[in-house]
């Protein structure tokens, strides 16, 4: 009886390992970017702290609550989308005949259903991780909104301390949200494995390049780095 791994070549295993490594390393590079070349995520974290300092002095604070509400809506949307993707994958996994038909449409080869199930499980991994990240991000933005509600007027000595806590919760929520988005990027890239190993390698490189470009060489980054007049 063949071992399940015998159905996959070394190139297959290497391509999957590269995909997972790229997924983890891009997150590390973005979240731990050097000070001399910060990523968009790091720059936005600075502005989130500035936002909370401005929030203390703003009256009324309806504008700030609307922003947090909009951020929570985004996380809820992507969480719902991820759940739909998870449901679709489970539907295919639970119907071997349907899966075999899809496999025959995508590839003229004679790979057993086990191979296609493994490929779908890889996609499921990214979809499930994205769902968990978006749900946690939604909850953290909820914590942030509660902390913002607990910030007193700027005349109170507690105002800026609590605003700083709200800022850190906001940053953590955004970090989880961005991790979820990266899971979506690489999850979409992992679908290329259904077409073959070489397409998976190409999709991994393209996904990594797109993510890193947007974080380190995009116009949005240039806009965030534009020189501002001195002042708060």
Describe the structure.
- This protein has 232 residues and is mainly α.
- The protein is built from eight helices and no strands.
- Helix 1 packs antiparallel against helix 6.
- It starts with 9 loop residues before the first helix and ends in a 7-residue tail after the last helix.
- The mean pLDDT is 90.
Summarize the structure.
This protein has helices at residues 10-31, 40-57, 62-93, 96-106, 113-149, 159-190, 197-216, 219-225. With 232 residues, it is mostly helical. The model has no long low-confidence stretch (mean pLDDT 90).
User: How can the largest sheet be summarized?
Assistant: none
Distance between the termini: 70 Å
What is the 3D form? elongated
Structural class: mainly alpha
Computed CA radius of gyration, to the nearest angstrom: 22 Å
Helix content: over 70%
Low-confidence stretches: none
Report the portion of residues in β strands.
Answer: under 5%
Number of strands: 0
């Amino acid at each position: 009886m063949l071992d399940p791994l015998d159905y996959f070549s070394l190139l297959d295993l290497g391509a999957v390992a590269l995909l997972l490594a790229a997924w983890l390393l891009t997150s590390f590079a973005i979240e731990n970017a050097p000070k001399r070349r910060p990523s968009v995520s790091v720059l936005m974290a600075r502005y989130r702290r500035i936002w909370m300092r401005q929030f203390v002095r703003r009256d009324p604070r309806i504008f700030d609550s609307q922003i947090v509400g909009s951020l929570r809506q985004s996380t809820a949307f992507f969480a719902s989308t991820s759940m739909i993707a998870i449901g679709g994958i489970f539907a295919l996994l639970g119907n071997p005949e349907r899966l075999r038909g899809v496999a025959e449409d995508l590839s003229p080869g004679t790979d057993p259903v086990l191979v296609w199930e493994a490929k779908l499980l890889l996609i499921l991994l990214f979809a499930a991780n994205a769902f968990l990240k978006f749900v946690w991000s939604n909850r953290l933005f909820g914590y942030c909104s509660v902390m913002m509600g607990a910030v007193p007027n700027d005349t109170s000595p507690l105002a800026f301390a609590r605003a700083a806590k709200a800022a850190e919760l906001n940053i953590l929520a955004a970090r989880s949200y961005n991790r979820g988005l990266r899971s979506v990027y690489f999850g979409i890239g992992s679908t290329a494995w259904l077409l073959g190993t070489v397409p998976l390698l190409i999709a991994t490189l393209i996904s990594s390049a797109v993510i890193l470009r947007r974080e380190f060489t995009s116009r949005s980054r240039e806009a965030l780095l534009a020189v501002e007049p001195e002042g708060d």
